[in-house]
Amino acid sequence: MKPKKPLPKPTGSIEINGVKYDVQQCADIIAKVLDVVGGKWKVLLLYHLTVNEVCRFGELQRKIPAITRRMLTLQLREMEKDGLVTRKIYPQIPPKVEYSITEEGQELRQVYRQILFWGAGHLGLLHKAGPQLKNPSSK
Fold it and tell me: What gap in Å lies between CA 88 and CA 48, rounded to an integer?
């Protein structure tokens, strides 16, 4: 296995989409992104909504059994407010509510994929951090 090439250290500025940002502006943007997607559940909710396109509340709760009803409600409300998910309410009894990911939420797919790739490459570290993961099946 080849040694990984270290990433260059951030310097004075970085250009993104033709706009230059200094180090502090970059840190401010990262902090704001973490306000929107941070926390224990949001990236996992984005993952499930991306994979399944539309999910009802109960489906999401079954997909993430460790999340409480209250926390799921709060996270989905924040994500809706921030424009990452949409909520569709059907006028019926019992009420039917479906959640889907917005285009902006879809754009975060690269973020959770990078988290997944990093995690798959550092399983030993993850095993030290908490409960054991299921072993992936090898091809």
Answer: 17
Q: Is residue 3 part of a domain?
A: no
Q: Which of 22-31, 75-84, 123-132 has the lowest mean pLDDT?
A: 123-132
Residue 15 falls inside a structural domain: no
- Number of C-beta neighbours around residue 8 at 10 A: 6
Give the C-alpha separation, 40 to 129, whole Å. 14
pLDDT at 49 over 90: yes
Average pLDDT of the residues in 25-50: 90
DSSP label of 53: S
**Domain holding 97: CATH number?**
1.10.10.10
**How far, in Å, CA of 47 to CA of 73, rounded?**
17
Give bridge partners of residue 13 from the DSSP assignment.
22
Residue whose tokens read 């090898």: 138
| Residue from 100, 62, 61 nearest 80 by CA | 100
Confirm if 85 and 54 have CB atoms less than 8 A apart: no
**Are the CB atoms for 74 and 90 separated by under 8 Å?**
no
SS3 call for 120: helix
